[in-house]
Amino acid sequence: MSATVQIVNNSHHPLPSYATAGASGMDIRAFLEAPIQLEPMERVLIPTGLFISIPENLEVQIRPRSGLAIKQGLTCLNTPGTIDADYRGEIKVILINLSTEVQSIQDGDRIAQMVFQKVEKAGWDLVQQLDNTERGDGGFGHTGKQ
Predict the structure, then answer these.
(1) How high is the pLDDT of residue 62?
(2) Domain membership flag for residue 1
(3) CA–CA separation, 83 and 113 (whole Å)
(4) Backbone phi, psi, residue 92, to 5°
(5) How far is CA 27 from CA 24, 67, 83, 119, in A?
(6) Cα(41)–Cα(47) distance, rounded to whole angstroms?
(7) Partner of 25 for a Cys bridge, out of 15, 88, 115, 137, CB 3.0 to 4.6 A?
(8) How sure is the predictor about 136, in pLDDT bands with cuts at 50, 70 and 90?
């Protein structure tokens, strides 16, 4: 573990944790007063009851859980969602139901994973022309399908 992060947990759920030694993300849970029924193609902002103080050289990315995506069609919008180091509000997760059936979200359900990433700051060097590369200005799909 390379960083220690301050956390306030206003929920009654355990702190996020790594499920295995090789896991890169910590599962985070829904903190709900009542279950939410999410209609097909409906999106909702789910509270977690968690507030964190992220060190200046890190960000938190909120990512979908693969099991929810394949089994229930639930995924995160704005993926990965970025939480900046200076944000101090509650962590909330934007979920969308991409299935054809109503999906239920219960208090305590693991709804997303939280990944800490290093952040590099960049500066600008204003120039009149960029260097050439083999790709050049080739855009989406320029290398073909196979």
Answers:
(1) 98
(2) no
(3) 13
(4) -130, 150
(5) 10, 12, 15, 21
(6) 19
(7) 115
(8) confident
Q: How many CA atoms lie within 13 A of 39 on its CB side?
A: 1
List Cα–Cα distances, 89 to 23, 83, 146, in angstroms: 26, 10, 45
Evaluate whether residue 123 is within a structural domain.
no
DSSP-assigned states of every residue in 90-135: --EEEEEE-SSS-EEE-TT-EEEEEEEEE---------SSPPP-SS
Token pair, residue 48, equals: 């977690």
User: Residue 71 is part of which domain span?
Assistant: 6-118
d(CA 96, CA 58): 27
What one-character DSSP code corresponds to residue 16?
Answer: P
Amino acid at site 128: Q
**85 touches 116 (CB < 8 A):** no
pTM value? Answer: 0.87
Integer-rounded Cα radius of gyration of the chain: 19
C-beta of residue 74 within 8 angstroms of C-beta of residue 96: yes
The CATH code of the domain that includes 81 is 2.70.40.10
Closest CA to 16 of 73, 70, 91: 91
